[in-house]
Amino acid sequence: MFGVTILGNNSALPAYDRHPTSQVVTIHDQLILIDCGEGTQMQMARYKIRRSKINHILISHLHGDHYFGLMGLITSMGLLGREHDLHIYGPEHLQDIIALQLKVADTQLPFPLHIHAIKEPGLLVNYPRFTIECFPTYHRVPCWGFIIREKKKPRKIYREKVLEYKIPAVFYEKLKLGEDYTTKTGEVIKNEWLTLPNSEGKSYAYCADTIKDSRVATATTNVTLMYHETTYLKDLAERAANRYHSTTVQAAEIAKEANVKRLAIGHFSSKYEKLDAFLQEAKTIFPSSELAVEGVTFVL
Amino acid sequence: MFGVTILGNNSALPAYDRHPTSQVVTIHDQLILIDCGEGTQMQMARYKIRRSKINHILISHLHGDHYFGLMGLITSMGLLGREHDLHIYGPEHLQDIIALQLKVADTQLPFPLHIHAIKEPGLLVNYPRFTIECFPTYHRVPCWGFIIREKKKPRKIYREKVLEYKIPAVFYEKLKLGEDYTTKTGEVIKNEWLTLPNSEGKSYAYCADTIKDSRVATATTNVTLMYHETTYLKDLAERAANRYHSTTVQAAEIAKEANVKRLAIGHFSSKYEKLDAFLQEAKTIFPSSELAVEGVTFVL
Q1: Which residue of A40, A140, B98, B287 pairs with A22 in a disulfide if CB–CB is 3.0 to 4.6 A?
Q2: Do B191 and B203 belong together in one domain?
Q3: Which domain covers residue A192, as residue numbers?
Q4: Do A64 and B75 count as a contact with CB atoms less than 8 A apart?
Q5: What is the dihedral angle through the alpha carbons of A180, A185, A187, A189, rounded to the nearest 10 degrees?
Q6: What is the mean pLDDT of chain A?
Q7: Measured between beta carbons, which residues in chain A are less than 8 angstroms from residue B45?
Q8: What's the pLDDT score for residue B125?
């Protein structure tokens, strides 16, 4: 399973029972939390997200609607007796903010908390089955987007052929990783004769708060699912630019430029009660657009 | 109107749709917010509390369940265009925490924010119609309780008598404040002949997180309504003491010792789903006990 569950889809002001930004990525048996606006822990309870499964938290930037729920979540994890490591990746000053608040509360967390300051684009996490990368987005304060990539899956054994060529079973694992087989007499049997390709690894790009910028498309080329912020409808392009945010049309253009398969849009301004127009406008440019509705899981 | 509306009544971990501590005191045309756990701004929306009417916020101590909603509230007030002064009273380091988070977000609030560090017990605010005092409670970190007192109401003019004694109408305001009237011939007409007493001012004491301590009763003697924490039922007195919290029976004993009129209990541990036993146990000691249920307003 590789999926993204939306916990909060609103911009700065909570409104119409929409919450500030937070998403949970499920990849195999792990959960990765992306951003953590106020009330995220309550949203997790609502949508039955298992906090103990979260080992990585990614914070895009230090505007409150993206991280004011973090201290509450960390504190609750401690109170619930978590003992295993928690890794947080975020902008430089996050460490100071967390340390200060733990100190004044005289809180000793029962688990190791690792806070990693993001200083440059690149690989943050390299796990056996997935990677997490970051790339800059273009906002009023330093801001990062994230890409979670499933690693390419191993090839599948072509049962009839391995029997025909009498390949020893102990070599099967190497076949899956793409190796050719060499017989005792020195004959090379090509891997592609013996195996079948498996599906490509899928990928998710979270394009946090950002003004429309083609460099975001370049960084996220060909991902399976892109989330791009759409704070405003297209008629407010000027306001969006002034505030380093994007419109529906701009997000859809970036998705198109990046050649992604699907686009999820969110971070809606609290000035909008209904969201239909967001979807409608995005689809005129990029038909595979969807609304990042709270509680919905996008399965990749 | 003098009343207390409960926005959150749970201790550290949010549970069973109960929220971390927050209360709003309405006194005449002003709102005073006491503590501001995560999600307080959402609870305000739910219970139709007008944020713009809040001019004073009192933070008892720097455990997250009492203040992690503060940054979100302040930021939202700014986004909503607040322009008038906001006064926050709280422990020493609150100023640093707020300043750091505003700085990293590059936020310029459109209203004057005054953060007052509480250093000693006494008067915090002296308004024409009420005062706010603070007193220490006894918790694991420095912690303050608060008393909001309506000022004694002016005396009422005794219509028949002022006519009988021919008191000039311009002197009525002074009569209300208790002054005697002296005639041109030097004769003193006693205030109590000319006026009737009005009702006494009412008072509310918020006894924040605390271990059971008689000094809390001394500080809050004779208040109209006391809120006292009851994190645990009486059978967990040892755990309560270890964690600097109180049980139902202890809270009720303090209310009795302080000779208050009514007691509201809250700050329930998330280990309890049902609250009936809290009320039952408190009432065995102090019959005028009530549960601080979220959304309920205690009218003084």
Answers
A1: A40
A2: no
A3: 156-196
A4: yes
A5: -40
A6: 95
A7: 14-15
A8: 95
